[in-house]
Amino acid sequence: MHSGRRFVRVAWLVRAATWLGSYAVLGGTASTVVAKDLAYVLSNPISVIDTATSTVSNPIPIFSANMQFIAVSPDGTTAYVGNYAGAVAGIDSGSVTVINTITNTVVTSIPVPGNGFGIAVTPNGSKAYVANWNTPPTVSVIDTATKALIRTIPVTNGPFEVAITPDGTRAYVSASPVAVIDTATDSVVATVAVGDTPRGLAISPDGARAYVANYSTTTVSIIDTASNLVIGTIPLDGADYPNQGMVITPDGSRLFVTSGNDVVAPGRGISVVDTASNALLTRIDDTSQPRAIAITSDGKRAYATHYDSDKVLVIDTATNLVIDSFSVASGSLDIAIAVVAPTPSATPTPPAGCAQTPVAGCQSPGKSWFNVRNRINDAVDSLRWKWRGGPTSTSASQFGDPVSGSTGYRLCVYDESGTGTTLALGAAVPSGGMCVGGRACWRVRRNGFTYLDSAATPDGLRRVVLKATGRTRAQIVVGGKGINLPMPTPGASTLFAQNPKVTVQLQKTDGPECWEAAFFAPAQRNAPTLFKDAEMP
């Protein structure tokens, strides 16, 4: 259960320090909500590890046979998977699979030239940069809002990984030489010669240094990001073939680098480097060929994946010892960690335009039903409101044009108590837009419109039916479900005060038309986890 839930999910491979905290919430009563880290492991299906409970759950089915890299958007709602050419049916080039992490469903697949390898998302979440290894050597730029390829940037040989500075102004690409991209112009502004076969990349939390793992020379090059000059080289003694796994602790003090290929076993392991002295502190031997590595937001645990097994190792970064391991689905390739922090508030946050009290002049129904389920598991919260035509006729023109016009809607639920009326719940339905599967969210139907968004964004509403067929047969249906759906603040024994009534209104955003139903006490059911009532003539 929640009140005015907002999701703060910071992913970006946790290269920037992130907080964990407690919040005082819910009707003046102190309640502690602790953020937790979720590790997304690129296996098939994609595995999700709750690092707080050490459990593997919520697999994300995916249809790609040759996945390589994964990145998560800063808000944690979207994962991007880079695929080798021919991995997706019907797509001969490389591709990027886009996944909604709230619903664990594939949204779309975006073709890219060459092979989709390393991916990084800008800190503001507006673009994703994809290294296209092999021919042609390029970097693809994806607009994350439209989920479309908007630009292709030529670079030099073998682009493998991408890392973006914390301020979002530069993208570094591990090609030969390393390419530096200005993210404002999407153009290469510098190149930096490093060791042979650059692979892994990491940027310090302060943005001052870029670290590049050189696969063939078993070294790490240090780039000063102000001058884009190499200012040091770190030998990884005892290691062979440092690959893509490279990450820095949130405080910037240590660098972890995975090493090993499919031929040389003795040199496999994870090197730990002190970034102050640029000296190798220790090596964690790992014969299962470690590939990728990510660190939790508090810097206490590192999670390492492997080329040749289905396991993920857990490393205590204070002792540099392996303290746990997980078996995941087939394969264990790349990994990204997202910090999930539900942030409650004392009052629900309404969508733009939802007034604090009901608007006047709305059409009344002949019949109406309202059902709200407020569960402990927010993923199964749900809402359904059904409105059937009343004494006033409803024409299709009154609904406006949500398909190609500017007509959006807001569902506003008002609760009356002995002290007045409050806005208990508000959720928006935007106009236009493309939804899961590349289909239009809104469609024209006979005498009205339908809306379908299985991703339930932005506010948890998944389905809307607007049907105008005369007085008694006009119909409105609004349904929502899941973690994005705002919920009212429950009382000790009821979900709504309902003293004397709960009013539900569907309001247009570009006109005065609205439709409402009032549900007077006593309700059929009014408990903290369930409200159910009907209005009949």
Largest sheet: 8 strands, antiparallel
Number of DSSP helical runs: 0
Q: Classify the beta-strand content into a percent band.
A: over 45%
Distance between the termini: 33 Å
The mean pLDDT is 83
The rounded Rg comes to 26 Å
Main β-sheet, spatial strand arrangement: 38-39-40-41-33-32-45-44
In which range does the helix fraction lie? under 10%
Shape from CA axes?
A: elongated
- Give the number of DSSP strands: 45
Low-pLDDT runs: 1-34, 87-91, 342-351
Structural class: mainly beta
Descriptive account of the structure:
It is a single chain. With 537 residues, the chain is mainly β. It is 0% helix and 50% strand. It contains no helices and 45 strands. The strands form eleven sheets. An eight-stranded antiparallel sheet has the order 38-39-40-41-33-32-45-44, with no helix packed on it. Mean pLDDT is 83; it is low at 1-34, 87-91 and 342-351.
Which characteristics define this entry?
single chain; mainly beta; eight-stranded antiparallel β-sheet; five-stranded antiparallel β-sheet; elongated
Chart the SSEs and their pairings:
Elements: E1 6-10, E2 23-24, E3 30-31, E4 36-41, E5 46-50, E6 55-60, E7 67-72, E8 78-83, E9 94-100, E10 105-112, E11 115-121, E12 127-133, E13 138-143, E14 148-154, E15 162-164, E16 170-173, E17 178-182, E18 187-192, E19 198-203, E20 209-214, E21 219-224, E22 229-235, E23 242-248, E24 254-259, E25 269-274, E26 279-285, E27 290-295, E28 301-306, E29 311-316, E30 321-327, E31 335-343, E32 367-373, E33 382-388, E34 409-417, E35 420-429, E36 434-435, E37 439-440, E38 442-445, E39 448-452, E40 461-467, E41 475-481, E42 501-508, E43 514-520, E44 525-527, E45 530-535
Antiparallel strand pairs: 1-31, 2-3, 4-5, 4-31, 5-6, 7-8, 8-9, 9-10, 11-12, 12-13, 13-14, 15-16, 16-17, 17-18, 19-20, 20-21, 21-22, 23-24, 24-25, 25-26, 27-28, 28-29, 29-30, 32-33, 32-45, 33-41, 34-35, 34-42, 36-37, 38-39, 39-40, 40-41, 42-43, 44-45
